[in-house]
Amino acid sequence: MDNIDNAERRQATLSPAKQALAQTLLQKWVRGELQADTQQSQAITPAAHNGALPLSYAQERMWFLDQLEPGSSFYNMHEAVSMKGRLNVAALEQSLREILRRHEALRTTFSVVEGQPVQIISPAPSWDLQNALAVTLDQQLLPLPVIDLTRQEQRATVARQLAAEEAQRPFDLTRGPLLRTTLLRLDEEEHVLLLTMHHIISDGWSVAVLIREVAALYEAFSTVTPSPLPDLPIQYGDYAQWQRDPAQLSRLAAQLDYWKLQLEGAPPLVDLPTDRPRQTVNTFRGARHLFSF
Q1: Phi/psi-derived region of residue 119, left when phi > 0, alpha when psi is between -120 and 50, beta in every other case
Q2: In sequence order, what are the residues at sequence separation of 6 or more whose Cβ sits closer than 8 angstroms to the Cβ of residue 166?
Q3: Plot region of 35 (φ>0 → left; ψ -120 to 50 → alpha; else → beta)
């Protein structure tokens, strides 16, 4: 009873539109429709990879922005991973190549077919674990250049400068690769791994997953043991294909109609007052100003 009372109190604080939506969802749940919809919406299955795959909606936005600002680095995602202690560079490179094999998104480029953007997924490499070589993938697809800074006087400063420069290098979505790696050697027991990806194949959550998986693979490969990570049941391309399924499109249309109704009459542009006129062309030059109330 306490849970029911709490739910009723929370619903009473909602706006009339949200209360109406909650009531509709409750009625669907009572009729058993909501459970069926949820189960069906979660049924993502591997897509047939006999050709190009469609983009997800998030990828389509990124692709459009890249067309709008070609050669831009605005949507580069970059991470600098500090590593202490003796480093097995061969095991690290092997770990990165296994990550590349494991995640199709990191082997994806983007092209246009019949006027529509599509995903092109390169074949996965197969591994000769004994020799730590990819035997079916071009070795240049994921090089790991090592930049030796051990003789630099201001190693930390130079490392930060190189990291900043790498983060600003743009990607070519049609050619790839859309993941770049560079290893900075500060001394024998201190390295920095630079990881740079385009946002069209990754996001903040994915970067954290990537670093955890590289760490797990490195621990295994540095002791000449197999990967501890199980193969993935689905890939991002499967999710993109699922999003474009007609059943999903019909659900999306209903959600879109709801928000069109909620946002009807909203101003097309929020013109905030500033101390200078709005520029006609975006420069993306921003700054941060901290203050207290």
Answers
A1: beta
A2: 78, 180, 182, 194, 196
A3: alpha
Residue indicated by tokens 């490969």: 221
- Facing residues of 113 across strands? 116
Q: What is the pLDDT of residue 51?
A: 73
Q: Which H, E and C letters describe the chain, residue by residue?
A: CHHHHHHHHHHHCCCHHHHHHHHHHHHHHHHCHHHHHHHHHCCCCCCCCCCCEECCHHHHHHHHHHHHCCCCCCCEEEEEEEEECCCCHHHHHHHHHHHHHHCHHHHEEEEEECCEEEEEECCCCCEECCCCEECCCCHHHCCCCEEECCCCCCHHHHHHHHHHHHHHCCCCCCCCCCEEEEEEEEECCEEEEEEEEECCCCCHHHHHHHHHHHHHHHHHHCCCCCCCCCCCCCCHHHHHHHHCCHHHHHHHHHHHHHHHHHCCCCCCCCCCCCCCCCCCCCCCCCCCCCCCC
CA 64 – CA 58 distance, rounded (Å): 10
Angle at 140 between CA 135 and CA 146, to 5 degrees: 115
Q: What is the mean pLDDT of each run of 10 residues along the chain (293 residues)?
A: 52 72 66 51 76 92 94 94 95 94 94 94 65 41 84 92 96 94 96 97 93 96 95 94 85 86 86 77 82 92
Calpha distance 12→15 (Å, rounded): 8
* Angle separating helix axes 246-262 and 33-41, nearest 10 degrees: 120
Q: Is 160 exposed, middle or buried (0-12, 13-18, 19+ CB in 10 A)?
A: middle
pLDDT of amino acid 124: 77
> Which pLDDT does position 271 carry in this prediction?
74
Residue 61 half-sphere exposure toward CB, CA atoms < 13 A: 4
